Amino acid sequence: MPEPARSSPQSTLDRDAGLLWHPYGPLDAGAHFSVTGAAGAYVELCDTSGSPHRLLDGMSSWWAVVHGYRHPVMDAALTHQIRSFSHVMFGGLTHGPAVDLAEHLVAVTPAGLDHVYLADSGSVSVEVALKLATQYQQARGRDRSRFLALEGAYHGDTTGAMSVCDPVGGMHADFAGLLSPQLFLPRPPLPEASTVEVDAWVVRAENLVDMHGSELAGIIVEPLFQGAGGMRPYHPAALRALRRLATEIDAVFIADEIATGFGRTGADFACRSAGITPDVMCLGKALTGGYLTLAALMCSGPIAEVITASSHRALMHGPTFMANPLACAAATASVGLLFTDDTSGWEPAIARISPALTAGLAPAREMAHVAEVRVTGGIGVIELERPVDVGLTTRIAAEHGVWLRPFRRHIYTMPPYISTPETMATITAAMVAAAAAHSEGDLQ
């Protein structure tokens, strides 16, 4: 077999088009840039003309690279582990990196989440959570297999996860015939909603659970902030009501904290800030600092005890790369950095980032074609009145030294936690400029 061709970054872009699919993109679309390197908060790229760029990564590579690229602590953890072993099956075997990570996660997550399942990715952890809830109900002698979710939800691209994503406005409407029919509540009220609005939504949730409680294996939510479904925060009273309803009907309450966990919404975990503990919590993205794919499912003792006492005695899922040692080593290092008291920790990071987002995005509030500007912890969103021109936004942001990847009507950032006030000013200026370029005059 011939050696793969070695080429310049420019020719890499040419070779990519028509060869590789990119997320939610046509086969012949290719990519905007070819990456040649990355360090800290910056990625080094080459465009189609061969010109080099050094851009701030305002996306944290889809919310995962929170410590930046080539972080010395992360690099050292991977180097140390690879010198011992990179992978070993987890069936019948264990290893230090997996146990270390599980102990760390039990220590930092809300009390009572004492058991850990290490999955391949965020979507897979959601699949495992849905299977766990179904097994739990079977073990209790019940025929329950449906789930209650929220309109506007996004939980991943695998089949079970798609079934609990928004069934109409989401990205998976074409697969309706493939998916199990689930129940959906309207999007919860915004954090600033009145007591009357919140109470009305809670009554609607109570009525739906009263009608269908005997069918529900579980309730699944992104706590306090819906990500890819609309970049939208919601009122904590709605989350507390769903936790209460799950308890009342003995449904498994699943918190998908893949995007919201590890400080992103302004608390270590969104559930804790709302004063609730789920039965199951899914974690991912920042878990490994973006170095490798890994997710964790945290489970409460009472749920785990029912599974253990069932006929299977096991949670019926077991991927080949479960608890991959390299990924576990990366995750342990990442969690250690996130929960330190120095500038590497999530808390001082959000204390820097959140006010910088509020100040930097303020000019967009005055634009007539901007529907809303929102800041939630380390998340900044400019929502337009109409769909974003992705190409225009990417170009304008790059001209301002920033990599952004907008979607639907949202120009947004989830910046790395290593961001400084100076880099935050650059990111927000690029977002405001991209929003300004969408005015009627500029688009004409």
From TrEMBL:
Q: Which residues form a coiled coil?
A: none
Binding of pyridoxal 5'-phosphate occurs at 122-123, 256, 319-320
Q: Where is this site: Participates in the substrate recognition with KAPA and in a stacking interaction with the adenine ring of SAM?
A: 24
Pathway(s) this gene product operates in, as recorded in its UniProt entry: Cofactor biosynthesis; biotin biosynthesis; 7,8-diaminononanoate from 8-amino-7-oxononanoate (SAM route): step 1/1
What Gene Ontology terms describe where this protein resides (cellular component)? cytoplasm
Query: Which sequence positions carry the modification called N6-(pyridoxal phosphate)lysine?
Result: 285
Amino acids binding substrate: 62, 154, 285, 318, 405
**Entry keyword Lipid biosynthesis:** no
One GO BP on record is: biotin biosynthetic process
List, alphabetically, the HAMAP family matched: BioA
The record's annotation in PANTHER family points to:
ADENOSYLMETHIONINE-8-AMINO-7-OXONONANOATE AMINOTRANSFERASE
Any idea what job this protein has? Answer: Catalyzes the transfer of the alpha-amino group from S-adenosyl-L-methionine (SAM) to 7-keto-8-aminopelargonic acid (KAPA) to form 7,8-diaminopelargonic acid (DAPA). It is the only aminotransferase known to utilize SAM as an amino donor.
- Spell out the NCBIfam families in the cross-references: bioA
Protein's recorded name: Adenosylmethionine-8-amino-7-oxononanoate aminotransferase
- Organism name: Brevibacterium sandarakinum
Q: What high-level taxonomic lineage is stated for the organism?
A: Bacteria, Bacillati, Actinomycetota, Actinomycetes, Micrococcales
